[in-house]
Design a protein that fits this description.
single chain; alpha/beta; Alkaline Phosphatase, subunit A; Arylsulfatase, C-terminal domain; 3 domains
Length: about 625
C-alpha cells in the first residue's frame, strides 16, 4: 500500500429510522468507520453511532462504482458484526477506488450479505475525504423518507407476488433439498425464512405444458397446451414461439390485473408468439421481457430478447444453442457472446421493483420471473465456472447429446445453478431495499425435473448435464419428460413474513393447478369458475389443512405417451401409450415409496379402476395434442 493511501472499511446496519434520524441530524454520526493508516499499518478505530444505510446503494447514494444492492450474494452464512468488520479488510491491496465488496445489508426484518468479490474496501487519497463526507450528507436528506418506507414497508393493501420459476431444476439440486456439491445459499436462506414443501408437483414433465397449467389453473386433462409444439406447425406466419394458448384462455395474470395489480413476466414465456392469441401482453402481463420462444432460449447469448411485441438486439455476435465439436480442443471462450441474457433479465426485474417503489400511488404487483437456468445449453461466463473444482471434469462434452460443447461440463452446470441462486438473492435484496420485504409473497419452484438421458453410450445427459454426478433427483425415479416423481416432483419454497411460517417443512401434496386459486385467495380476488386446483393458502399459512386434494392429473402425449393420476397417497401411472408395446398400469404408495420401486398394481386393481374413472371424467378432447388412453377414450 502506498503511503498516501487510506483504506476505509464501512459496516452499515439498520437500527430503525428514529436512530438514523438522531444519528445523522443531531449527533452527526456516520456509522462505524475504521481507518487503516497506510504509512505505518496502525489501526485507528473511530466508533460513532450506528445508523441505517441498508438501502444506500439501492438509491445510488454512494459514489459511482460503489456497491449496488444485489450485485452478488455471498456464499457464506451470516456472521457477527465483529467477524464482518474483520472480513472487510481482506483484499486491502485494491487500488484507486476500485471496489471489492462484502457488504452486510440489514433491515429490521432480515439480514442479507452481498459480495461482488469479495470484501468492502475502498482505497482513496485522504485529502478528498471531507468532500466525500459532504456529498454523502448532502444526499441523505432527499432520500430519508424513502429509507423510512424501506424500513417500515408500504401501506397495507393487497400483497405483492413474486413467482420465481426455474427451468429444468431437479428436486435435489438445492442445498435445502439435500444437494451436496452445488452452492445455493440464497435459496437455502429463502427456505429458512419460509416453508419448504416436499410434495409439490409441476403441471407437466416438460416446459410449455407445465407453464400452461401454471398460468391457467387447468390440469393436463383440460389444458390447451399438453406438449412442446412449435407455433409454425399450425401457424405458418410465425417463425418462432410455441403453439399459442387461445384468446379465450384466462390466466392468473389477467385475473390479478383486472383486480388492480401491476403485472410483469420476465424470462421465458413459451405459450405463444408475439402477435398470436398467446401473446403475453394479451394475457394479463403489462410488461414482458425475455425469450418468447423456448427454442431461442437454448442460447444464453441470443441475437435479441423481446420487450412486449418488439425485438431488442442484445448480441451483435449471437451464439447458437446447438453445435458439436467432434475433435480438437473444446474452448469455453468459443461459446461466449457479448451480453449474457440472464443478467439482462435480472436487471429488468430489479428495475421493475424499483419502479413500483417509486410510484406515488402504491399498487400491488405480480412479478413472474421465469428464469432459464439450468436448462441447457451450458455456456455460463467463465468466472462462474471457475468457482467449482477443475478436478470434477475429466473429459469435455463435445455436443454428442445436443446443444453446445463444453470443456468443463460438470462445473458449468453447477455454475448455472449457483448463478440462478444469485438471481434469487438479488431479487430478494431489491424487495427488502425497496420496502417490499414484508408484504410480498415469494414463491420459488421449477417447471420439471432435471435433464434426461442423452445419446446411447454417452456418459452425459442431454446437453452435457450430469444429474447422476450431482444426484439431481435424490432417490426419485426418472428425469424430465417422465411422469415418474423425478420428472414432475419439484422443490417449492414459499415465503411471506408474518403469514407463512419460517423454517418449516410441509408435506401436503400440491400442484401447479393450485396456484391460480391459491394466489386469488391470498390477494382477496374471486377466481374464475372451472379451475382444477385447490386453494392451498390456509395450508401455507398454517391456518388450515386440506383434508382431501382433488385428483392431480397428467395426460402427456410426448415421450411415448403417458398418463398419471395422484389419488390421495397413491399414484397410478401408465407409460408408452403410443408405442407398439404399451406399458402396463403401475401403482405406487408415494409417501412410503417415493422412489417408485414397489409396484402395487397386482393387488390394487381398485385404484386402477378409480384412476380410469377419473380420467374418463377429467380428460377433454384435444386434437392438437391427442392421446388415446385404453379404457378411457379409445
Amino acid at each position: 500500500m502506498e503511503r498516501d493511501e487510506w483504506t476505509f472499511g464501512w459496516w452499515f446496519s439498520w437500527i430503525g429510522f428514529t436512530d438514523f434520524f438522531r444519528a445523522v441530524f443531531f449527533k452527526v454520526g456516520f456509522g462505524i468507520v475504521t481507518i487503516v493508516a497506510g504509512n505505518d499499518g496502525r489501526n485507528q478505530n473511530i466508533g460513532m453511532n450506528e445508523f441505517a444505510v441498508t438501502a444506500l446503494a439501492a438509491w445510488n447514494m454512494l459514489e459511482p462504482g460503489f456497491a449496488q444492492v444485489g450485485d452478488e450474494l455471498s456464499d457464506r452464512p451470516r456472521h457477527t458484526p465483529q467477524h464482518a468488520q474483520k472480513e472487510m479488510f481482506r483484499k486491502s491491496e485494491v487500488r484507486d477506488r476500485r471496489l471489492a465488496t462484502h457488504c452486510p445489508l440489514r433491515t429490521g426484518r432480515a439480514a442479507l450479505w452481498f459480495e461482488p468479490q469479495p470484501t468492502i474496501s475502498f482505497i482513496m487519497n485522504p485529502r478528498p475525504m471531507h468532500s466525500l463526507i459532504q456529498r454523502f450528507l448532502a444526499r441523505i436528506l432527499p432520500v430519508s423518507f424513502s429509507m423510512l418506507a424501506a424500513s417500515s414497508g408500504h401501506a397495507a393493501g393487497p400483497p405483492n407476488i413474486v413467482f420465481i420459476l426455474a427451468d429444468d431444476l431437479g428436486y435435489g439440486e438445492l442445498g435445502c433439498y439435500g444437494q451436496q456439491k452445488i452452492r445455493t445459499p440464497n435459496i437455502d436462506r429463502l427456505a429458512e425464512q419460509g416453508t419448504r414443501f416436499t410434495q409439490h408437483y409441476s403441471g407437466a414433465p416438460v416446459c410449455a405444458p407445465a407453464r400452461c397449467v401454471l398460468m391457467t389453473g387447468k390440469h393436463l386433462g383440460h389444458a390447451e397446451i399438453r406438449g412442446n409444439r412449435q407455433a409454425s406447425v399450425s401457424f405458418k406466419e410465425f417463425t418462432e414461439g410455441q403453439h399459442p394458448i387461445s384468446a379465450a384462455a384466462v390466466t392468473i395474470a389477467q385475473t390479478l390485473q383486472q383486480a388492480g395489480y401491476d403485472t410483469a413476466a420476465i424470462g421465458k414465456w413459451g405459450l405463444g408468439p408475439a402477435g398470436s392469441t398467446g401473446d403475453p401482453n394479451k394475457h394479463g402481463f403489462g410488461l414482458f421481457y425475455g425469450y418468447n420462444c423456448q427454442a431461442v432460449a437454448h442460447s444464453y447469448y441470443p441475437k435479441f430478447l423481446w420487450r412486449n411485441d418488439k425485438q431488442e438486439p442484445v448480441n451483435d455476435h449471437p451464439i447458437p444453442g446447438h453445435q458439436t465439436k467432434p475433435a480438437g480442443e473444446v474452448r469455453m471462450e468459443d461459446y461466449i457472446g457479448e451480453n449474457y441474457a440472464p443478467n439482462l433479465m435480472v436487471k429488468e426485474a430489479l428495475a421493475f421493483i424499483k419502479r413500483q417503489a417509486d410510484k406515488p400511488t402504491k399498487t400491488p404487483f405480480f412479478l413472474y420471473l421465469a428464469f432459464i437456468e439450468p436448462h441447457v445449453a451450458m455456456h455460463p461466463p467463465e468466472c462462474l465456472v471457475d468457482e467449482y473444482p477443475a478436478a470434477w471434469d475429466t473429459r469435455p462434452y463435445r455436443g454428442e447429446s445436443g446443444y453446445l460443447p463444453h470443456p468443463r461440463p460438470r462445473a458449468a452446470y453447477a455454475a448455472m445453478i449457483t448463478d440462478l441462486d444469485r438471481h434469487v438473492g438479488k431479487v430478494m435484496a431489491a424487495l427488502e431495499a425497496n420496502g417490499f420485504g414484508a408484504d410480498t409473497l415469494v414463491v420459488f419452484t421449477s417447471d420439471n425435473g432435471a435433464t434426461h438421458e442423452g445419446k446411447a453410450g454417452s456418459p452425459f445427459h442431454i446437453g452435457g448435464a450430469d444429474p447422476v454426478f450431482f444426484n439431481s433427483e435424490g432417490d426419485l425415479k426418472g428425469f424430465k419428460g417422465r411422469v415418474y416423481e423425478g420428472g414432475i416432483r419439484m422443490p417449492m419454497i414459499a415465503r411471506m413474513p408474518g403469514k407463512i411460517p419460517a423454517g418449516k417443512t410441509n408435506d401436503t401434496p400440491g400442484c401447479f393447478a393450485d396456484w391460480f386459486p391459491t394466489l386469488c385467495a391470498m390477494a382477496g380476488v374471486k377466481p374464475p369458475d372451472g379451475l382444477d386446483g385447490d386453494n392451498l393458502w390456509p395450508v401455507m399459512t398454517g391456518t388450515g389443512k386440506l383434508a382431501v386434494h382433488k385428483p392431480m392429473i397428467w395426460v402427456y402425449p410426448e415421450y411415448g405417451g403417458q398418463v398419471a393420476v395422484r389419488i390421495g397417497d397413491f399414484k397410478v401411472i401408465r407409460a408408452d401409450l403410443q408405442k407398439k408395446t404399451m406399458g402396463a398400469w403401475e401403482v405406487y404408495e408415494i409417501p412410503k415409496d417415493r422412489g417408485e420401486t414397489h409396484d402395487l398394481a397386482a393387488s390394487r386393481q381398485d385404484l386402477i379402476d378409480q384412476a380410469v374413472a377419473i380420467l374418463k371424467r377429467e380428460v377433454s378432447p384435444n386434437p392438437i395434442f391427442p392421446l388415446t388412453i385404453p379404457g378411457v377414450n379409445d
